[in-house]
Structures are given as structure tokens and as C-alpha cells.
Amino acid sequence: MTAPTHIAFALACGKLGDASSLALALLAFGSLLPDIDHPQSTLGRLFLFVSVPLNQHFGHRRTVHGFAVWGGVALLGMVWSPALWLGLGALSHITIDLLNIAGVQALMPFSEKVCVLFKKKWRFSVGSKEELFFLVIFGAFVWVGYYISSVGGLRALIGIITGAPRIAQQQYIESGTQVGYFDGTLRFRDGRLEQGRWLVVGKEAGDGLAVWDERKKELIHVPAHAEFLRAYLLPTEHRWQTLSITGWARTKREAFFYDGKLWRYAPPGAIIFGWVIGRELEVETIEIASDRR
């Protein structure tokens, strides 16, 4: 295969596995390493002082294309992490080379058997239109991988597609103190359905969750008051200011506080205690331990 196909295949595997940017770069470079045994390859032309003697001594698609060599490099990742990604990139190179008409001696140095994936009619030559087709497919997988990463990962994508409330709740928990909304459908205990957007206040005991209806000024406890039939997390760029209060305090601004089981709404002037969140916290208290973010 040509260098673009090897790189595209390695990146596709990496993105679908949610690899980091550094890991992707190492995978891409590693996907070119086995062809260092050919002076006309992308790396071979850059490092002729390496590729020429390797080609003369081992030939092309033989020992340097062996799973054992690059599997060993990947194992070095236990002591030097970049080796893992370089080795995996090289292994992806060998795997895709199994689709070549000529195959590859992937079991070297233990066996000279030529390895292929399919019968000859299903394999193709380097630079053919069939390879171009696979290059496009791998490129599409890379794009899909980047899109999945941009929406927060595979689980987030499933949440976007299905509107699964549990996925949205887990995303909220992982967001820490980030202010977010649930957009979706609530079914209340009286059977009433309501579509809208609710401010997520916080997790409660068990699988509970508190959300705030900003229009009605109403705190809704899920599942005690209602349950989400579908929900999508809409994060914002803002974060809650937080306080951990020992004793009692009086809030000067609108806030929410957690009493150990449920979240409570506190209008300006109300008594608060425990864990407190708000967009702009300002309190009067006797004893207070502050952790403002």
C-alpha cells in the first residue's frame, strides 16, 4: 500500500479508539516504519543510509514486516509509552499489507510463509483504483472519529442520537461544576408531558437528580416528581461558584443548597447550609469554610 493509505488506516483505528493527538501522530509515523526496508518508500528516501542496507540484508516485506518485530516494539510501551503507539502503527501497516496481491511474510523471522487476508481475486495491487477506494473509506472513518471526539465520545454520540436520560446524567456528573441544561421531555407523576429545557442543579441520593424550571421558579426532583423520557445535555461555558458551609448562613443572592438528600432552592435572604452552588454567591454566616471557583 502507499503511504497515504497506511496513514489513513492507522488514524482511522486510532480515532475510533479515541486516541490522543500525540498518540495519533505516533500511530501515523509508526504506520510508515515497516517500509523503511524499501529505499523508494516515503521513509526509505529520507533515510537511505538505513533503508539501503536493510533492503540488501532482509529484502522488502520480510523480516522488517514481521508481526514479531513490531509486536516487540509495542511491548516496550510498558516502559516507554510512545513505543506502544509506534508499534501499533507498524502493526496496522502489516495488517493492511495483507491485502496486497503479493502478500507479506508477516511471520518472519519464524516462518517464510507468505500471509494474505483473502483469495487473490479479493486482493489488489499497490496504487490501484481498489486501493484508492479503501483510502477513501479509511478517510471517512477518520472523519467519523474526529466527529465522535468533537461531541464528547461514542457514548455522547449515542446520547445525542437516542436522547437516553442516563447518558445525559452521566455526562453531567463528569462535567463537574460546569453549568448545564437538560433539553428533552419530562413525564410528571400525574401523567402530564412537558417539553422544554431545565437547568441541572445536581445529583441527589441514589439515582436522583434535581432540575430547575427557570420560568416557573420550580425545583423538580427526578424521579420523585417526574422522569425524563429523553434528555440531551447542553453544557455552557460557565461554572457554578461553590461553598461548603459549616453551621448556618444567609444568602444575599439566589442559590441552591444540598441538605444531604435533596437539593433546595434558596431565594435572597433565605437560610442555607451544607453544600451551596450559585452563579454569584454572597452570604452572611457565623462559620463558613469556603471553596469558591
Task: Please describe what this structure looks like.
There is one protein chain. Helix content is 37%, strand content 27%. The protein is α+β, with helices and mostly antiparallel strands and 293 residues long. The chain has three domains: 3-150, no CATH class; 156-239, SH3 type barrels; 241-290, no CATH class. Strands 6, 7, 8, 9, 10 and 11 form a six-stranded antiparallel β-sheet that branches. Strands 4-3-2-1-5 form a five-stranded antiparallel β-sheet. A hairpin with a 4-residue loop joins strand 3 and strand 4 (218-222). The longest helix is centred in the middle third of the chain and has 22 residues, at 129-150. The chain is elongated. The two termini are 53 Å apart. Mean pLDDT is 87; it is low at 288-293.
How many structural domains in the coordinates?
3
Question: Which of globular, elongated, flat, extended, rod-shaped describes the shape?
Answer: elongated
Q: Report the β-strand fraction as a percent range.
A: 25-35%
Mind summarizing the main beta sheet?
A: 6 strands, antiparallel
Radius of gyration: 29 Å
Number of strands: 11
Order of helices and strands: HHHHHHHHHEEEEEEEEEEE
The assigned structural class equals alpha+beta
**Unreliable stretches covering 5 or more consecutive residues:** 288-293
- Helix content, binned percent: 25-40%
Number of helices: 9
Distance between the termini: 53 Å
Average pLDDT across residues?
A: 87
